[in-house]
Write a structure and sequence with these properties.
154 residues; alpha/beta; five-stranded parallel sheet; 5 strands; 32% helix; 10% strand
Length: 154
């Protein structure tokens, strides 16, 4: 259905109720969603995270980042991808950063859930931030990178 729908321009896969847990999109669900998005030329924004402050978002985790990376690499129509609060660590961010190097259309990448630490957020540390910085040196399209939840070493 998503692959053939040309009216949907924004896909939001988060529970909009404050302080309610995730809706359960895991790596397998992410694979299905990404498969549909890669065939859809209308969707410009994909959010697999919350729009409000809540406990957790989904469960894409590092395993699902290979699909998020594929989306970043191949979906030329997408301008915004949000995967905050999905339990992503440095390993998952490395996959996304690698794909970001070759992307020329993505304008915004959000990897957080709120401006303060929350349970179930992404745990992106030094390694992930360094990989993202490296990717930005060869990416000229990204205008906004949001890293609200991160854990840097001293």
């Amino acid at each position: 259905m998503l692959a053939h729908n040309t009216r949907i321009t924004e896909l939001v896969l988060g529970n909009p109720k404050p302080h309610v847990d995730h809706n359960g999109v895991d790596a397998a669900g992410c694979e299905v969603i990404v498969g549909g998005l890669l065939k859809n030329s209308a969707v410009r924004r994909c959010e697999m995270c919350m729009r409000c402050e809540s406990v957790a978002s989904n469960a894409v985790k590092d395993e699902g980042c290979k699909f998020v990376g594929l989306l970043v690499e191949k979906a030329v129509n997408l301008e915004v991808i949000s995967v905050g609060g999905n339990g992503i660590t440095d390993e998952g961010v490395k996959v996304i950063a690698k794909a970001l190097k070759g992307n020329s259309t993505l304008k915004k990448l959000h990897l957080c859930i709120a401006k303060r630490k929350r349970v179930g957020g992404n745990s992106i540390g030094n390694e992930g931030v360094i990989e993202l910085g490296d990717a930005l040196s060869s990416n000229n399209s990204l205008e906004e990178l949001t890293l609200c939840i991160y854990f840097l070493d001293d």
